[in-house]
Amino acid sequence: MARLITLLADGFEEVEAITVIDLLRRAGITVTVVGLKKQDVGGAHGIVVQADTTLKHLPPSYDGIVLPGGAEGTKNLIESSKVVGLVMDAFNKGLLCAAICAAPSVFGKAGILQNIRATCYPGYEEQLRGARYIEAAVVRDKNVVTSRGVGTAIAFALELISLAADEATSKRVGAQILYF
């Protein structure tokens, strides 16, 4: 089964992080929650989440990286050269690279969106450097999956499940949560 890391920085959007982590785990996918600087990470709306580890102690191997949005959280991710380097490395290895809301702008800074179809939260389109912007709930192109925001978090998570596990598992989890 796939092993994914989800990076949290102070100011992350709680719904985008927790929904995705929860649904991936329901699908049997191993998700390691990684705090940018510390394990207790504060969300954009005052909810503190305890990460499994920190960026300093990143798991030695994983199959993909997931970035939740939130304006401040994304700003903190983008300012980390280590995060930008991880994204570049994951993309170049063909690992799953997924981001929602403002977080696809981290992919833009990492330079991985050249001629890749992508979406993001309205107002961040120009930060998707080199991407072919698509206004859709979830956009998948090669090993990159992007989504627009809180309202698309379930669809985003189910797309990730279809890639990290399979379509049947995605449909099963969707049915369990009464999404379909």
Give unreliable regions as ranges. Answer: none
**How many runs of DSSP E, i.e. beta strands?**
11
The sequence of SSEs as H and E is: EHEEEEEHHEHEEEEHH
Mean pLDDT: 97
Strand order of the largest sheet: 5-2-1-6-7-11-10
Q: What can you see in these coordinates?
A:
The chain is of the alpha/beta class. It has a single domain, classed as Rossmann fold. The protein contains six helices and eleven strands. The strands form three sheets. Strands 5-2-1-6-7-11-10 form a seven-stranded mixed beta sheet, sandwiched between helices. Helix 1 runs parallel beside helix 5 (153-164).
Spell out the key features of this protein.
180 residues, alpha/beta, Rossmann fold, seven-stranded mixed β-sheet, two-stranded antiparallel sheet, 11 strands
Offer a concise description of the structure:
By secondary structure, the chain is an alpha/beta fold. The chain has 6 helices and 11 strands.
Question: Strands, helices and their partners?
Answer:
Layout: E1 3-8, H1 14-26, E2 30-35, E3 40-42, E4 48-50, E5 53-54, E6 64-67, H2 71-78, H3 81-92, E7 96-100, H4 104-110, E8 117-118, E9 132-133, E10 138-141, E11 144-147, H5 153-164, H6 167-176
Parallel strand pairs: 1-2, 1-6, 2-5, 6-7, 7-11, 8-9
Antiparallel strand pairs: 3-4, 10-11
